[in-house]
Amino acid sequence: MARWPHFAYSAALYVLAPLIIRRVWREQVPTYSRGQRLGVGLKLGDSADVPTLWLHCASVGEVRAARPLVEALLERYADHRLLLTTMTATGADQVRALTNDLPKTLASRLEHRFIPLDFPGSARRFVARVRPGLAIMFETELWPNLLRACQRHAVPVAVVNGRLSPRAFERYRRIKPLMHEALANVSWLAAKSDADAERFAALGMPAGRIAVVGSLKFEVTPDDAALEVGERLRADIAADAGTVPGMRPVWVAGSTRDGEEAALLEAHATLRKRYPQALLVLVPRHPQRFDAVAEECQAAGLVTARRSRQEPLTAATAVYLGDTLGELGALYAAGDVAFVGGSLVPLGGQNVVEPASLGRLVLTGPSLENFSDVAEPLQAAGALKQVVDAGALADALINAFDNPVEAHRRGYAGQRVVAQQRGALERTLAGLGRLLAFSARPSG
After folding, report:
1. Does the residue 94 lie in any domain?
2. Cβ neighbours around 170 below 10 Å, total
């Protein structure tokens, strides 16, 4: 196979290196991450003899979606450590939150590092130092030099929860020769759907290495601790308003992105004309925007309390800003209706399964292409409704609170869909087990 696409890619990285490094240095707050970005400073644990499994997730949403897999790997391979890498500092924060939630016996074998930049030298240093028995890439994390370094060190590579939206497929198709080379280094790809499998095959992934296993996003199960926090917050909201739980209309907007909050606040203002005590629990996706969103809420004339500051909720509070990390599930549990962000702006949406698994009616904007596979069965059950703008969102909220029995019925229908769709985790673990067993065979 011709190697020129790979050489051209690496050459382009070196030419752009000053800009790439400058941007990463500016985004990554922890100074210790800088060496890791170049494939150094990667010492793992106290023993070099402990075998390592490596799982890479891009950021917050992927870490959250990968939680069932993380727990299953730690439980199934008790003699291994699990190295979880992320691209972003917020992803690292999510790993810390996950670690704190795990039993100590599991948490002690979970380590986090930042993934190196995809320069050839950084990739080689990383793989040589970590020496994983298996590399697992979550969704579409396909870094050509890292994949090539794995191949050179005889490390099998699996892509799990593999997805390619139509928009992403069109981007990758423009660099098909490079993607064909990169995918040649993937040992097994667990696709979310038939459509995803077809797109990966069209880019050059050998069909015999692809299996359609379903979406790991359906494997989410409500965390008991999160449910407890959510129920306690739900009771606090009602007490502060002088009502009983469930009587004050509460909706949660999670993982919201820049450009969405204005529409959400407009819809909330309309809702409060009908339900003056209605409360919006607003959870921006990126912590660097917390202060700006708080200012936007106050500028809209809405009394706002911030969770990070433990500001009290009162009957006058219109917006409760969830400006903390790792609590989205608990905050979803505190509401009656959930709006999932990244969807009123053309960003492809966020994970709609988490609130559906809690039995909440789910609302989103029109942009859901990144989650169409999990959204479709929820829509078919009436558990998910798409809205196009602030006016349509306000109408949907008013309808839900005018008809609480119907809203609850639709939420429970979504909960049943999530339960029925589970099974991808076991199929994924079976495939990973075969790779590990094969890689552990003695040569010759």
Report:
1. yes
2. 11
CA dist., res. 422 & res. 219, Å (int): 5
Count CB-CB contacts under 10 A for residue 107. Answer: 14
Q: How far apart are CA 379 and CA 426, in angstroms?
A: 25
65 and 155 in a common domain: yes
**CATH number of the CATH domain containing 232:** 3.40.50.2000
Look up the domain containing 309 and give its range: 224-421
**Which candidate in 62, 111, 139, 296 is catalytic?**
62
- Using DSSP's 3-state secondary structure scheme, residue 39 falls into coil
Domains in the chain, number: 2
Do 159 and 274 sit in the same domain of this protein? no
Report how far residue 221's alpha carbon sits from residue 232's, in angstroms, rounded to the nearest whole number: 19
Q: What is the tens place of the pLDDT at every residue in 263-313?
A: 999 999 999 999 999 999 999 999 999 999 999 999 999 999 999 999 989
Per the annotation, the verdict on 27 as an active-site residue is no
- Tens digits of residue pLDDT in 106-164: 999 999 999 999 999 999 999 999 999 999 999 989 999 999 999 999 999 999 999 99
Residue 154 CA, distance from chain mean position: 29
Judge whether 135 lies within some domain.
yes
| Regions in the chain scoring below 50 on pLDDT | 1, 442-444
Single out the residue of 112, 105, 116 nearest to residue 147, CA to CA: 116
pLDDT, residue 167, reads: 87
What is the number of helices (H) and of strands (E) in the chain?
A: 20, 14
For residue 81, the model assigns a pLDDT of 95
Give the Cα separation of 222 and 362 in Å (integer): 16
The first and second tokens of residue 127, run together, are 């793989």
Q: Residue 196, exposed/middle/buried by CB under 10 A (0-12, 13-18, 19+)? A: buried
| Residue 204, in any domain of the structure | yes
